[in-house]
Structure formats: C-alpha cells, structure tokens
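Researcher: Sequence of Glycosyltransferase RgtA/B/C/D-like domain-containing protein follows. Predict its structure.
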Amino acid sequence: MSVVAPEPTDERDRRDPGEARAGVFLARLTVAPALLLVCWLAVALPLLMAGVFTPLPAIASFVPVAALVLTFGLRAVRPSGARWGSWWTVGGLLAVTVAFCVMQLLTFSEQIVVRRDPASYFNFATWLAGHGSLPIHPALGPFGGADPALSFGSPAFYQRGGVLWPQFMAGTPMILAPVGRLAGPYAMLATMPVIGALAVLSFGGLTARLVGPRWAPAGALLLALVWPMMMISRSIYSETAALVLMCGGLALAIDAVRANRRLTALLGGLALGLTILVRIDGLRDVLPVVAYAGLLVALRRRTGPALFAGLVVGVGAGVLEGYTLSQPYLHYVRASLVPLLYIGGAVLVVTAVAVVVVRRWGLPRLDRFRLPDLALAAVFAVMAFFAARPSLQTVRRVPHNPDDEANASFIAALQKSLRLPADPYRQYSELSLHWVTWYIGVPAVLLATIGAGLLLRKLLLRRRTDWLLPYAVIAWTTVTTLWRPGITPDHPWASRRLIVVVLPGLLLFTLWMMAWAVRSVRRLGYGPQIAGGTAVAGVLLVLVPTVLTSAGMMFTPTEQGEVAQARSMCRSIGPRATVLIIERVTADRFTQLVRGTCGVPSGRIRVRPGSNTAASEDVERISEKVVAAGRRPVLLGANSVDVAPYGTARRVYHVSTRRDSSSLVAAPHGTWSLAINVWMAVPVYAG
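Model: Prediction complete. Tokens:
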C-alpha cells in the first residue's frame, strides 16, 4: 500500500453537483487566507529590504501577484475521493468565523505602551508605516550631538552602532504597516481580530480535510473558544499570522499530494516556509516537512520537489530577513537558534541519505515486531512522562544576559505577589502539559492521546496516510515545545507558545477520536440519533472545560484608552520638541512610542546608580545642548517629582485599565488592574 494518499478517482464526478460545489468552495475558501498572506509577504519583503516599503508600491505589486496566485492556485485545489462538504457545513464554518471576528473586534486590546511583545510589534509596524525602511535612525542633531549620558535604545529596540534594530521578525509588522499608514493605529490594532478569524477559518479547513467536512464547524468552534486563540487575536502577536500560514500550508500540502499537483505543493511549501518570516520558532516546526518532501522525492512523486522548493524559498526569505534586518534579535536567541540550525542540517543530511536508500531498496516494513500494536503504549508513555515531570524535575535557568536578568527579576516579583517560594531562576517548564490541560481540559488531552496512538498505528500500517505530514509536524512540535517552551512562564502570556501547533494539533487528534467513536457507534448498528448524540457529547466534553477557563477573561477588554492618551500626549509635546526621558520605566515604555507615534526625536538620559532617575547635571547639560540646537527640550517621567525640579510638571498621559493576569502554577482567571502615568515639564531656562 502506498505511503501517500492516492490520486482522486473519477468517482467525484458522479456525486451530487451541489455537494461537489460546496466541497470545492470549502476547500478553496479555507486556503485562500494563507495564499493572500503568502502573496503579501512575497512582495513586501523585497520592498522593505530595498528601503521603499510604502503602501503604493506594495499594493501595486500585491494586486497582480495575488490575482495570479488565487486564480491558478485555487483552481488546483479540489477535494478528493469521498471527502465532501455541504452548504450547511460551509455556513456553519462561516458563522463561527464571523462570530469570532465580531467578538474580538468588540474586545480588542490597545496595547501600544512597550511592556511586552504586542506593543513592540505595534511600534515596529508604526515605524515601518511612517518610514518604510530599517534600521531606525535616531538623529543626533536635535539633541545637539552625542553625549555619554544619552542613548536611544529601549526594550525590543536594540541600539547598535548609532542606529536601532527592532526585536523580532518583520513578517507581522509588514502585514500591519500599510493598514496603519492608510487608516491609523485603531485600524492597525483591529486588523488582528480579522487575522485571528482567518486562522479559525483555516483550522476549520484543515479539520475538514483530516477529520471530515462535517467536523469543520466544531473544530473551528473549539479553537475559537480556547483562550490563547482569543488572546493572540486581541493584541499584536506573531503567532496569529503564523497559525494562518501553518494551517493553510498543511492543507495545501495535503491537497497537493492527494491530487498530485505541483503548483499546490509549491504554494503549500512556500506558506509553511514563510512562517519563519513571521516567527523564528517556525524553523523548528517545519523540519518534518523536509523529511516528508524527501519521502515524496524517494517515491518519485512529482509533488516532492515542488513542496521542497517552496519550503526552501520561504525559509530562505525568513533567514535572509533575520540576518539582515533582525540580527540583534537572532543574537539574543542564539542559545536556542544555533542548536536548531545543527538539527536542521542533520535532518537535511539524513533525508538525503534516506532518499537514496528508499529509491534503491524501497520503504522498510514498519509492521514487524508488533510495532503498530506498541504505538498506543508509546504515545501514552510520552504523555505520562510529561504528566509526571513536575515530580521528577524542576527546571531552572541561570541568566546569561541583561534580558535574562530582567526576566528573573520579574519572576521573583511575581512569585512574591502570588505568595510562592522565592526561586527567580525557575522556569516552570516541567508544568508544560499541565498548561495544555488548563486551556483545553483533561478530557481533550486524554482523547487526543488515544487518537494520536490509534493514528500512529494506522500510519505504521500505511493507512490514513493523508495524516503523515500533519502528524509529524504536530508530534515533533508538541514534544519539543513541552520539553522546552522557552518563554517567560507566566500565564496566559506563555500560552502563546502552544497556540500555533500544540493546541490546534491536540484538538485535531481529539476531533479525529470523536469521529472514530461516531463511526464505531454506526458500525455497531445504532441509528443516526445515537451517533449524533455521541458527537454532541464528545464536543461538549471538550467545550465545557475550555469555556470554563476562558470565561473569566473573554468578555473583559484589556489595555483600553492607550491610543487616545498617546495622541493627547503627542499634542502636549508640541512642535519642534526634543523629548528627553529621565526616568527608567518611562524610558523603557515610551522612547520608541514617542519617536514613532508622535514623530519627534526622543532619547533617554542615563539614570544614577541605585536610582530610577537621571542626575540633574546630565539633564541640564543635555537640555542646554537641545536649546542650542534650536529646539524645545521636553522632559518626561513617571511621576511629578521626576520632572518638577526642571519646570512646571503636568500629567500628559494617564491610563487606568485592565491587563491580562499573571499566573505561574494555576490556570489564569480574570484580569488585573493597570495604571500608567507620564508627567511632562519644559525646562524653565528653555524659554
């Protein structure tokens, strides 16, 4: 039996025409979001690297490229074999998608003050919207030249050689920047719920292909109600676009192999490869695609070279951007990145050798030594290890750089507020499987484990081979992520590490197990009512614990009012101003926000040892240099006492809102209060 799915037969032409049209529409609709992102990133990256990334040339390039790709790419996408949908399925999936989008639009976050990654992405995108190029040049002229106490970098904006390089990959900022340029910051922030809804739609399409079309609305609903999915759709997270590319890329690859179409395989590989341009962790997630493409090549399937070519181009684009525009960030994550590059090289070598071996001697038999019968036990053993890991290990990490020290300080403060034992170097990674149960519940994890075991058995027997690539990606990424999440471990923040592959993948296994149970009920001779009741009971078994975790947060908007207050602050700063931030926390949060949103030069003055504020002699000296340069010095601090010694203090920024809570050893519930203030003074001797 073939290890890959066979080509579709002409049986599809004898089926109900309405059902066929619904199936084709469903298949094409659910890969269209990934194809649109592929087209946009393909035209945006060259423009950014050329320093001319502005809306007019970007849109002018995007429209014809998207027209060609959608015309020919979607034409090649057709459901195969007996897998069909209905217009009820399409309507149900669209209803879930639209409802999710509306709910997220009503509660999206205005997180633009740099405390964590979403605001960093916002300010990155805002700079691209206004300038269309990197790096960021903090002009020295408005400050009267360089000064040893003056600097321009801040968290997520690294100062290197007189210029600033934003943290993170440029994919998500490139998606948002034109929206910000054409429609402003509110539209930029509101784009994330739309992308999140497209991710839910794409996951529904992947569910239809792997579990069955009738399960697509249920799959979309389960993912939509998982709190990490809501969280990444309310603020600017790279995982949102990555999820669209991952689900769409896997769906395209499945369609390509089923129909033996090279163009679809090329586009699927490109979508999967471009996840690296959005988030560097995608380099780990796509390693199984290399092995799968090699398998197709070994079996002389023409989709193999196309899939591999698309993957190489996408990964190459991400690596090129990383090493030219995000190098300080890659340097920061080198402890994880370098081993991953070695692993990637090893996978390439092993795949190349395996291609030669398989072509000469054929595929090895995997049904010997009762290997298929051991599959379920093996999967349970892996999950049992992760479940028992907290009693076997306590994961710690000794800081190696200032960012690690800051994380350790944050964990220590959080442990104190949560009344936990002081252990600032602890990473809590041993609780990673428990994190999963917080968000989708213990029943889902158990069903997923059984489903994964049964699917592995079928794969070893060379059945259900359409699952081979998704299974490899889900299993590899889930195990490696659970072993080393590599993220500050407070929740729900850390749940973003689970949302691209781990949680959707386990939900796919769960849904497949439910479908298997329904088919078993039918095989036992029970009627459609019993089978339908089994399906409803299975969905509710997962839905209830999911909603119980999400309910405390899903209806509460967070980080509200920040955009309006930022605009008010910009008006207060006024024209021909040079902003000097003289307090540490304010400088961390607002240096790039003032520079990008207000459009005025901003810098930070070095704080005194053991203090959060700058020395008065440094403030006065640099302020006088600003005056000599013909500009107005404006001082910012967190409190009136920070700036009052230099002029009349007035509060120019005030937000009292809610933020996501932070939990270390239990599921997050509810939100916490957040207050942010900025005080301003204009030095009296500046006139």
